[in-house]
Amino acid sequence: MSDPSLGSDSSRIGTWTASVLDADDVARVLETAGHGVLALADDGESYAIPISFGYDGDENVYFQFGFGESSRKRAFLDSTTRATLVVSDVQSTSEWTSVVVAGPIEPVEVAESPSTADAFEAFADNAFVPRNALDGDLDATDFTLYELAIESATGRYGN
Predict the structure, then answer these.
(1) Domain ranges within the chain, ordered by starting residue
(2) What is the H or E stretch that residue 154 is in?
């Protein structure tokens, strides 16, 4: 199929289709991926960061952030009312999966409660922390667990 907007070489692109993932497949992607890109915003300026996450299998995604004294991430998290997480796995132009979840994001109140334990367990189940992410003065780093409450979740896959 030729697309005039792609110019004369569009025939080399080929054809592909995308199908919608059902809710169970979206959940499966979130349970197994463990990493994605989190998009935050502050008064028209965007900030997107690759990040590891945990998923509770139901309605929340968890992130652990390490903040320095003047953290850009913290400033964006404080000003973002609705965040978006994009998870993708691309093997080829016809073999790919993407999931987009969005909702409010806020710090998890650390207390001795079942919900806090659940948050840490979800994070530990499928998140990972690259070794270089912990470079620097760890004593001066404030680690905070955040929760994105999923209000919308969609996914597609190529076939």
Answers:
(1) 24-158
(2) strand 152-158
pTM for this prediction: 0.77
What superfamily would CATH give domain 24-158?
Electron Transport, Fmn-binding Protein; Chain A (2.30.110.10)
CA angle 6, 156, 45 (to 5 degrees): 75
CA torsion sign for 37, 38, 41, 47 is: negative
Average of per-residue pLDDT across 126-148 = 62
In this model, does residue 7 exceed pLDDT 50? no
Angle subtended by helix axes 114-126 and 23-33, to nearest 10: 80
Half-sphere exposure of 16 (CA within 13 A, CB side): 14
Given the structure tokens 């697309």, which residue do they identify? 3
Percent of the chain, pLDDT > 90? 45
